[in-house]
Specification:
Layout (H helix, E strand, L loop, with lengths): L1 E8 L3 H12 L1 H8 L1 E9 L16 E2 L3 H4 L6 E4 L7 H10 L3 E4 L2 H18 L3 E2 L10 H8 L5 E7 L2 H13 L3 H10 L8 H4 L2 H15 L9 E2 L7 H10 L1 E12 L2 E12 L11 E8 L3 E8 L3 H16 L20 E2 L4 E11 L4 H11 L4 E6 L6 E8 L2 E2 H11 L4 E9 L3
Parallel strand pairs: 1-2, 1-4, 2-3, 4-5, 5-6, 8-10, 10-13, 10-18
Antiparallel strand pairs: 7-9, 7-11, 9-10, 11-12, 14-16, 14-17, 14-18, 15-16
């Protein structure tokens, strides 16, 4: 039996989940791995705060050095969230030669280069399966199981809060603000939901996933980001009528040395595997040149699912004689030789409010035609008060061409109500 002494940085929802899993499943873990984890110290803000689990008072401390600098502690688990001071504490632990396991996508996405450099310099381990998609083993799958593949496309539902909101809006026809309030009341959305609903959370995760998938650093700063706060129930309804489901997707594609990395509301066909991922579930759909299409699906958040990923990393680290790190040049900038495009190719959903008079439709089609954009599907509603609602799905087109066409058609007779990208066909 091997005994590993562990320290916690933070003991909120995820930390309590890890505590519970280690205590309740310790005999099984020992039997399966030959490893016993002993928790020696837990950093908290308030030692008197009531917690979900009965954590012994004598383990709690408000001094981070009692975790990061204790020579007996071999493994440090970070659950604090946010960029600081979590990054500083993890750096200190790595500099002390300790293995660090983190669930912190923000700190990792923004400071991965610093953390990996410290780990490599001091021979420390750095593991982060729980930082993306909770219990879904997408990090290990990408690094290990798909090593023989050139991953060309990765699309994912990586934020449970936004998926819950969009699912409710689609199934019930509710408005965004009303469903968000329900999600907050149920504890599925934070009091300040900005990180989730404006796509920051998904963009942090996409930075990590795309870097691993493409074996090249794709920093958070180059990822296009648009959240769901402006999504209109009217568009979701039209999308359903045309055979599409709306999701907030994290999308990464690589074609040669050109990277396409973006987070935004997206329509996908109802028969696409991601279309049936509802509620707070997460899923990653990818395409590799050898494995072809593949999807991983499961719980993307929550105390127990995230704890499953954290403890999985602990066992993985314990089984390795030497730490393993990504082999690409991990800096804070886009990998040398790569470029990020803002002119991605996909189909587009466009909703217009147009005057119901001769020549207006010709003006719309001319503006599209001038940019080489053709229409695949079109729906026109009967005019009300002299204006008609026009909804169309284009064939594949470039983002820049579509934006130019919409700018050209906007006039007293044509108001552009919305433009949503369409993927998966």
């Amino acid at each position: 039996m091997r005994r590993i002494v562990v320290g916690f940085l933070g003991c909120g929802n995820i930390g309590c989940g890890v505590w519970k899993l280690l205590k309740e499943f310790d005999a099984d873990l020992l039997h399966r791995s030959g490893v016993q984890f002993d928790i020696k110290r837990i950093l908290v803000r308030d030692v008197h705060k009531k917690r979900d689990q009965m954590v012994p008072q004598e383990l709690l401390t408000t001094d981070p050095a009692q975790v990061t600098d204790d020579p007996e502690i071999e493994m440090v688990l970070e659950f604090m969230g946010g960029e600081t001071p979590a990054t500083e504490y993890m750096l200190r632990a790595l500099e002390m030669g300790k293995t660090v396991v983190t669930a912190n996508k923000m700190a990792l996405a923004l400071n991965w280069h610093l953390l990996q450099a410290a780990a490599e310099k001091h021979g420390s381990g750095l593991y982060y399966e729980a930082a993306v998609c909770g219990a879904i083993p997408i990090i290990r799958t990408t690094i290990d199981s798909l090593m023989s593949n050139r991953i060309e496309t990765m699309m994912g539902i990586v934020n449970g809060t936004t998926n819950y909101i969009l699912t409710r809006m689609s199934q019930e026809g509710g408005e965004y603000a009303d469903v968000l309030r329900d999600a907050q009341r149920l504890g599925l959305a934070e009091p300040d939901p900005t990180s989730d609903v404006e796509g920051f959370d998904a963009a942090y995760k996409l930075s990590i996933l795309s870097s691993l998938a493409f074996h090249a650093r794709v920093p958070f700063s180059v990822i296009y980001r648009q959240g769901i706060s402006q999504v209109d129930a009217v568009d979701i309804g039209y999308g359903k009528e045309l055979g599409y489901t709306m999701k907030l997707l994290a999308i990464a594609k690589r074609d040669g040395n050109v990277i396409d990395a973006r987070v935004h509301p997206t329509f996908i066909p109802n028969d696409h595997p991601l279309a049936s991922v509802n509620g707070s579930f997460n899923a990653i759909f990818l395409h590799g040149h050898a494995c072809d299409d593949m999807m991983l699906f499961g719980r993307g958040a929550g105390s127990a699912p995230t704890a499953s990923a954290v403890v999985g990393d602990m066992l993985y680290a314990a089984s390795r004689e030497t730490p393993r790190h990504p082999t690409f040049n991990n800096t804070d900038a886009l990998a040398e030789g790569l470029q990020v495009t803002d002119n991605w190719q996909c189909s587009f959903y466009i909703r217009l409010n147009a005057s119901d008079r001769p020549g207006v439709m010709a003006h719309i089609t001319t503006c599209l035609g001038n940019e080489g954009i053709s229409i695949r599907n079109l729906v026109q509603r009967d005019a009300v008060d002299g204006c008609a609602q026009i909804v169309m799905i284009t064939h594949n087109a470039g983002e820049c061409a579509v934006r130019k066409a919409l700018a050209a058609m906007a006039s007293d007779d044509v108001r552009v109500e919305s433009m949503i990208r369409v993927e998966g066909k």
